[in-house]
C-alpha cells in the first residue's frame, strides 16, 4: 500500500479557514483516498477486535456504553496504525485550522458504534482535558461512508461560546440540559452524511453529538486529538481531568508544557517541510 499521501500537504482555502474560525468545526472532502481508507479499516478493525473488552450486550449497557466501543492510543499498539495517526498531512491540517505553529498528540481513540447502537449525547470534549487553552482539535476519520442512519457527527455551529453545559460529563444529563440550551440559541445544528475519505475537525469546546446507528453495520471511526505543541498542563478541575492527566500526560508537572513520551510533536511549522 502506497501511503505517500499521508505525508503530502493539503492546502485549505481562505473560505475553509474562515468557516472553521467562525463555526469551530469543518468537514473536508477527499482528504484520503478510498483505497487508503479501506486499508486502515481492515487494520484498525482487527486491532479493535483484539483489544475490545466489552462483553455486555447492548440492551444491558447505559447510554454511554450503548454509544460506542472505545479503544485508546492505538498508535502505541500497531506500527501500521501509527502511520495514519502520525500523518503529517492531518497534523498540518490541524495546525492550519487552529492557526498554531505545530501540534502534539493528546491521544487517539477508535469509536465503533455497533449496529443498533444508541445516541452519543450532546457534550464538549474539553470538559475532560486539563489544558490551559482552547487550542485543541479532533480529527474524526470515518473508515467507511457514514449515511445519516449510521449516526454521523452533528455539530452545533458556533456553540463554542456557550458556557452552559461545559461542566457536564457525557450522558443522559448532558443530552437533556445541553439540548435544551441549544434549542434556545441560534446555533444551526449541522448533521450530514460523510463520504469515504471525508474527515471532520472540531474544537474542544464545540457542542456535538451523534445519532443512533439504526443499521446492522458497525459505524467505524478513528479519531486523533491534537493540541498546540506548546500546550501547558493546568491543575485538574474534575475527576475526568485528573484521570486524563495521569493517563495521557504521565509525569508532566502542572504549569509545564505537555511533552511526555505519549505526547510527541506531530507537526512543527518551523522545522517540518514537504519534499
Automatic annotation (TrEMBL):
User: Which cofactors does the annotated protein need, by name?
Assistant: Fe(2+)
MF GO annotations: 2-oxoglutarate-dependent dioxygenase activity; iron ion binding
Q: Which UniProt keywords apply?
A: Dioxygenase, Oxidoreductase
Q: Which InterPro entries match?
A: Phytyl_CoA_dOase-like
Q: Which PANTHER family match?
A: ECTOINE DIOXYGENASE, PHYTANOYL-COA DIOXYGENASE DOMAIN CONTAINING 1
> Would you tell me the protein name for this molecule?
Ectoine hydroxylase-related dioxygenase, phytanoyl-CoA dioxygenase (PhyH) family
> Which species expresses this protein natively?
Flagellimonas pacifica
Amino acid at each position: 500500500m502506497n501511503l505517500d499521501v499521508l505525508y503530502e500537504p493539503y492546502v485549505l482555502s481562505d473560505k475553509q479557514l474562515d468557516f472553521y474560525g467562525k463555526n469551530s468545526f469543518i468537514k473536508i472532502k477527499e482528504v484520503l483516498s478510498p483505497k487508503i481508507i479501506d486499508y486502515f479499516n481492515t487494520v484498525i478493525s482487527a486491532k479493535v477486535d483484539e483489544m475490545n473488552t466489552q462483553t455486555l450486550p447492548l440492551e444491558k449497557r447505559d447510554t454511554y456504553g450503548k454509544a460506542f466501543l472505545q479503544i485508546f492510543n492505538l498508535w502505541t499498539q500497531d506500527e501500521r496504525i501509527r502511520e495514519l495517526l502520525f500523518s503529517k498531512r492531518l497534523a498540518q491540517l490541524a495546525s492550519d485550522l487552529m492557526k498554531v505553529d505545530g501540534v502534539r498528540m493528546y491521544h487517539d481513540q477508535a469509536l465503533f458504534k455497533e449496529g443498533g447502537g444508541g445516541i452519543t449525547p450532546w457534550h464538549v470534549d474539553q470538559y475532560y482535558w486539563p489544558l490551559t487553552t482552547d487550542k485543541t482539535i479532533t480529527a474524526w476519520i470515518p473508515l467507511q461512508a457514514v449515511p445519516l442512519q449510521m449516526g454521523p457527527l452533528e455539530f452545533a455551529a458556533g456553540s463554542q461560546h456557550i458556557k452552559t453545559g461545559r461542566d457536564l460529563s457525557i450522558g443522559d444529563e448532558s443530552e437533556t440540559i445541553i439540548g435544551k440550551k441549544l434549542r434556545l440559541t441560534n446555533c444551526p445544528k449541522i448533521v450530514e452524511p460523510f463520504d469515504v475519505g471525508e474527515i471532520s475537525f472540531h474544537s474542544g469546546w464545540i457542542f456535538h453529538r451523534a445519532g443512533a446507528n439504526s443499521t446492522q453495520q458497525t459505524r467505524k471511526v478513528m479519531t486523533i486529538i491534537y493540541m498546540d505543541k506548546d500546550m501547558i498542563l493546568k491543575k485538574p478541575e474534575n475527576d475526568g481531568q485528573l484521570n486524563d492527566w495521569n493517563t495521557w500526560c504521565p509525569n508532566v508537572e502542572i504549569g509545564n508544557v505537555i511533552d511526555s513520551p505519549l505526547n510527541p510533536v506531530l507537526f512543527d511549522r518551523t522545522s517540518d517541510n514537504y519534499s
